[in-house]
Amino acid sequence: MSIFSIGGGGGAGAGGKRRNLRPVNVLKLSSGFTLVELLVVIAIIGILATLLLLQLGTARSKARDAARIAHVNQVRTAVEFYFDDNGSYFASTTMTGLTPKYLTQIPRDPLAADCTNNVYDGRVSGGAQCYGYAWTPAANPTKYHVWAELEVWAKALDQDLDLNSIGWSGAGVNGAIDGKANCTTAANDCVYDQGQP
C-alpha cells in the first residue's frame, strides 16, 4: 500500500490524464495525552520517588551504624594497647588520655553533634546518643566496657559482648539489650558493646 494516492485530474500520462500524488494520512496520531493519563503517570512517579527516599534513609542509618561499630572496635583496641603499657585499663570517660599514642583522633557519634568534647558519657544528644565507657574497679581497672547505641538492628549485635556494666564507674549500660524487638528509638535499647568482662 502506497502512502500516496493517485488523484484524478487532467494532464499527460497514461490514458491522457495527469496524476496528482498527494500524501494519505496512513497513521493518525493522537492529539495528546488526556488529563487522567497524565495524573496516573504523575502519581506513579510520586510513589516510586517516595519508595526511593525511604530506602535512602534506611541506607544512611545503616551506614552510620557501621561507623559506630567501627568506632567502638577502634576504641577497644586502643584501650587494650593502653592496658599492655600500663597494667590496667583506661579509667576515665574523657578519651583525650588515649591520644595521640593509642588513637590519632577520638571517634564521635555521626549524629550527636553535642558529643564533641571527647567524653564518652552515654548521654542523649538531640536525636542520637554519645558513646559510653565504663570501668571497674574505680582504681586500677581490670574490666572495661565501651559501647554505642545503634539506630537499627544489625547482625553485629549477635557478635558483640552483651556486658552489663551498670554500677561501674563511668557510663554503664546493660549491653545485653540488643535483640531485634528491642531496637527502637529509645535510649540504651540497641547497644553494640565491646570490652573486658
What's this, in brief?
Helices cover 26% and strands 16% of the residues. With 197 residues, it is of the alpha+beta class.
What does this molecule look like?
This protein is α+β, with helices and mostly antiparallel strands and 197 residues long. The protein has one domain. The strands form three sheets. Strands 7-5-6-8 form a four-stranded antiparallel beta sheet, with helices on one face. Strands 1-2 form a two-stranded antiparallel ribbon. Strands 3-4 form a two-stranded antiparallel ribbon. β3 and β4 form a beta hairpin. The N and C termini lie far apart (89 Å). 27% of the residues are buried. The model has no long low-confidence stretch (mean pLDDT 82).
Features:
197 residues; 26% helix; 4-stranded antiparallel sheet; two-stranded antiparallel ribbon; alpha+beta
What is the topological layout?
Elements: E1 4-7, E2 20-23, H1 35-86, E3 124-125, E4 128-129, E5 132-136, E6 143-149, E7 169-170, E8 191-196
Antiparallel strand pairs: 1-2, 3-4, 5-6, 5-7, 6-8
- Major sheet description: 4 strands, antiparallel
Q: What overall form do the CA principal axes indicate? A: elongated
| Oligomeric grouping of the chains | single chain
Terminal CA distance reads 89 Å
Structural class of the secondary structure composition? alpha+beta
